[in-house]
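so my prof wants the structure for this chain in the tokens format not the other one, which i didnt know existed until like an hour ago. anyway here's the sequence
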Amino acid sequence: MGDVLAGIHATWEFDTDAVLIRFERGIRTPKLFQSLRERRIPYAALSSVTLTPGKRGTVVLRAVPRAGADPLVEAASGQLKEGCDPYRLVLPAEREVLAEYYADELRALLDPASGESADRFLVAAPEAPMNFKAYDGRASFDGERISFRWSWTGASSAKWKAGDQNFRVSELAGIVWRSPEALDGYLRLVPRAVAPVDHRTGGSLGDLHGGGDAEDGAPAGAPAEPPSATADQDPAAVLFGLGYGPVHESLPFAAAVLESVRRTQPAPASAPVLVNAGRRDPADIAERIHHLGELHRAGLVTDAEFSAKKAQLLAEL
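here's what i got, hopefully its the right format
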């Protein structure tokens, strides 16, 4: 598409096969966005696109990721607050017509398999090396190994007795990230001996994160506990707390580990082949050109942009 749509806290740049999301850096921008900086989201990683009214005279364009396509979303497991959702673009309400146009354009680019879970991660994870300070120690990841170095002021006697820990990615079945914005937040590594490997998700969901049904009083969709000690006693876990392991540090860390875990596991015996969408229906092209003309007459699209986009649409017939 080659177009740019600027919103509040982020700008979306539409390429031929992906949307590049660039996040602003500023005091009002969520720290998670500042930490991510930018993300390239292939259209094949999306399941749908929505446009809804926002707060205080805004509209929200949201690209909904496919299940299993983004390690950040998989690690978060539904725990991110709405304002920290990296797939939301908030725009002034007066740009609703323009936002609707881009929503339609994105929908037309969705893969025929968009309603199915992805068999592999399609969105890149944050890059190692990474580290953050937890309540009871410091966590580090160099791309192949995760290290926990215990703090003498916060670590339990069980962790001190076990000593500092090192885990190879190849030894893990997955991770459990419980948001530091909830009570008893933590990052837990799940060794292969503790939980079965889920080749589709890399072990971070399903048995490790729960399937959405409440069990033992846990809220629906909350991460399920692997069969091991509590996080404060488990040498494979670090605790969060006020000022420790904030979302913008610990979640990208968890996503990077999860992607590496997934990459070290053997692929399924057979994986579905994603097929690109074919040529568009002529009636759909005509409707989009008409919509583009309305934007042009409203002054939201320049003459050059109108001509270029019209030629591009006609070329797809």
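also thought this was worth mentioning. The two ends are 15 Å apart (CA to CA).
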